[in-house]
Amino acid sequence: MKEVERLRALRKSAASHEIEALLVTHLPDVRYLCGFTGSNAALAVTASKAVLFTDGRYTTQAKAEVKGAKVVIAKGSALKEACAWLESSAAAAGFDPANTSVSQLEMMRAAISGKARRKFFQPLTQPLAADLRMVKDDDELRAMTAAAKLGNRVFEAVLAHLKPGVPETEIAAGLEFFARSMGAEAMSFETIVASGTRSALPHGRASSQKLPRKGFITLDFGVILRGYCSDMTRTVHLGKATAEERHAYESVLAAQEAAVAAVRPGVTCGEVDEAARSILRKAGLAKFFTHSTGHGVGLEIHENPRVAAGQPQVLEPGMVITVEPGVYMPGKFGIRIEDMVAVTSRGHKVLTPVDKKLIEL
């Protein structure tokens, strides 16, 4: 069972950091480690045991899904019962501070008795489960490849509906309808449809604005399949692009393709970012590239590693990242092109190979 192997890897990582026990509450980490997909869970892990605490709503579901861990249906708070179990099993436990709220931490500490209350839970200096999730196994890669292929089909289906006068919200609704009708469990994030001058908004959520007679339309969306996310962006043009628009588009495309070409084992995320940024610098457009080049994808739409300037993380086979440079000229237009790219033993594989040449509708 892959969950047993993942728990074994987590214990090995914890031991290397001299951590006796762990409390895992971030739901994507819980799912990754034991298979549980419910909305309320606390996974307690020691060197020899793993126990999943949840509530009565998930009695049947937890027993069907959970692998590698014992299931306990809590009579009260699942989090508090997990903490009490850990206190009886270890002298201290680590937790992920990036995914633990102040109120959760206070509740965790309140569940511990005596003088050890303030010291029992120690923040991890490394996000152990998240680090494991960076490298996908074969099952995960198959799920992500399928999700990306579904996304490719959705993009091709929505193209025929991109016409002047259609509200952005209608395009987003149509895109999401196609995704669901083709088998998507959900969208990875709120669909972005930004047209005309709104295309200069990097995260321009679909609005009531109607598509212009001439101008760019940025479509950024993803689907979830078997729990795993896809992510892609394409920018198309209504009418004939101006010389300035064409230059900007071709520059972004060249930057994106250079960054994709740089993806291979042993290369740092910072080097991938620089491959894109250097092209835009030569084109005189670097100042309009206002975000990082990409991010990891998996059970969450944004995961490690971060593909940004100076990032030292070395790419490894099994990592899946986005490559999405863009330029955004306020009051004029914006362009972004994004692919999901899997790192392979010899280089990379683009999971979203939809044509990226400028489409003029």
Describe this structure in words.
The protein has 361 residues and is of the alpha+beta class. The protein is built from ten helices and 19 strands. The protein has two domains: 2-132, Creatinase/prolidase N-terminal domain (Creatine Amidinohydrolase, Chain A, domain 1); 134-350, Creatine Amidinohydrolase. The protein has helices at residues 2-16, 27-34, 59-65, 78-89, 102-110, 128-133, 138-158, 168-181, 243-262, 269-282; strands at residues 22-24, 42-45, 50-54, 70-73, 93-95, 121-123, 186-187, 192-195, 215-221, 223-225, 228-229, 232-238, 294-296, 303-307, 320-323, 326-329, 333-336, 339-343, 348-350. The strands form six sheets. A six-stranded mixed β-sheet has the order 4-3-2-1-5-6, with helices on both faces. A three-stranded antiparallel β-sheet has the order 7-10-11. Strand 2 and strand 3 (50-54) form a beta hairpin. Helix 7 crosses helix 8 and helix 9 (243-262) packs antiparallel against helix 10 (269-282).
- Spatial strand order of the main sheet: 4-3-2-1-5-6
**Rg, Cα atoms, Å:** 23 Å
Distance between the termini: 49 Å
Largest sheet geometry: 6 strands, mixed
Topology:
Elements: H1 2-16, E1 22-24, H2 27-34, E2 42-45, E3 50-54, H3 59-65, E4 70-73, H4 78-89, E5 93-95, H5 102-110, E6 121-123, H6 128-133, H7 138-158, H8 168-181, E7 186-187, E8 192-195, E9 215-221, E10 223-225, E11 228-229, E12 232-238, H9 243-262, H10 269-282, E13 294-296, E14 303-307, E15 320-323, E16 326-329, E17 333-336, E18 339-343, E19 348-350
Give a short synopsis of this structure.
By secondary structure, the chain is an alpha+beta fold. The chain has two domains: 2-132, Creatinase/prolidase N-terminal domain (Creatine Amidinohydrolase, Chain A, domain 1, 3-Layer(aba) Sandwich); 134-350, Creatine Amidinohydrolase (Alpha-Beta Complex).
